[in-house]
Amino acid sequence: MIIEATGLRKSFGATVVLQGVELGVPEGSVLALLGPNGAGKTTIVRILTTLTRPDTGHATIAGYDVVREATKVRGVISLTGQYAAVDDNQTGLENLVMVGRLMHLGRATARRRAHELLEQFDLTGAMNRRAKTYSGGMSRRLDLAMSLVARPRVIFLDEPTTGLDPASRLTMWDAIGDLVRDGTTILLTTQYLEEADRLADRIVLLDQGRITASGTADALKTQVGGERIELYFAAEPEARKAAELLGGLTDGPTVNLPSDGSAEHLHRVLDQLRDHGLRPARVSSHRPTLDDVFLTLTA
Asked: What is the distance between the alpha carbons of residues 179 and 140, in angstroms, rounded to a whole number?
């Protein structure tokens, strides 16, 4: 495992933020941390990137201890936060060259690496424009490019697509996918469940500083149940009667109940409703989504 953490605990005053978190991330994979606000996601990232010390527990990145060997850890990682960390008064090219120089690359090497990244992130046409003229999506792409100047083995992305429009978010997802295909390891925190579903090899769900579930997206969906049938009624009283009859759950005029996904089961449900004088206005069937996982396991 290129990222390993055992027994991480952290409190700020009387507020307990992490309660014995354990993680393991194989090299060349994506781990997504999901959880409600205040669950401890950003604190984990800060500990693993040497910005915060855990109260107890142990963590390593590429074999380096995040507390005792912080300088070595910083040499193999990069961190992209929730907001683009570019210098708005410099051009895209100047931002990248500046980072290269700060990473002790020679001037020629820094410029060569900058041009490689500008091409990779489709920013060549804007490389001589000041960053303050960039759109939100362009700024985020430049920010991610800046984190790659030194070719880190591990990238921490803390809500990297916050505030982006759907098209810019898709572009960022493609860029992240390319990095993983090149062997980079990514730890991602996100509030977009679709983002985790698309990008992550494995998902860890945090709630109140504890891991409540972990696994692939499909495994987590299976954990909260198989197929679901949703029945929509014209009025709530009908929905309540149907829920009592079928053993489902109501949400206003909607009844939700588990299913084996077969047409036979759906027909039985509809026949049973008809026999009791209940007729849904609309019926749908679907697999659980990560939204279902999130709502079920963090309730």
From this structure: 15
Helices (H), the chain: 41-48, 70-74, 92-102, 107-120, 136-146, 166-181, 193-199, 217-223, 236-246, 263-275, 290-297
Residue span of the structural domain in which 101 resides: 3-215
Closest CA to 99 of 82, 83, 80: 80
Q: Look at strands 227-232 and 282-286 and give their pairing.
A: antiparallel
Q: What is residue 226's predicted lDDT score, i.e. its pLDDT? A: 65
Tokens of 250: 């109501």
Specify the pairing of strand 3-12 against strand 15-25: antiparallel
C-alpha to C-alpha distances, 259 to 227, 263, 264, nearest whole angstrom: 5, 10, 10
- pTM score: 0.74
Is the residue at 41 inside a domain? yes
Could you read off the pLDDT of 215-252 as tens digits, one per residue?
888 888 777 666 778 899 998 999 999 999 988 888 88
CA 195 to chain centre: 6
State phi, psi for 59 to the nearest 5 degrees.
-145, 145
Question: Could you read off the pLDDT of 39-86 as tens digits, one per residue?
Answer: 899 999 999 999 999 999 999 999 999 999 999 999 899 888 766 678
Is residue 220 one of the residues assigned to a domain? no
Give, in degrees to the nearest 5, the angle at Cα 44 between 42 and 45: 65
With contact defined as beta carbons under 8 Å apart, do 187 and 195 qualify?
no
Residue 32 lies in a domain: yes
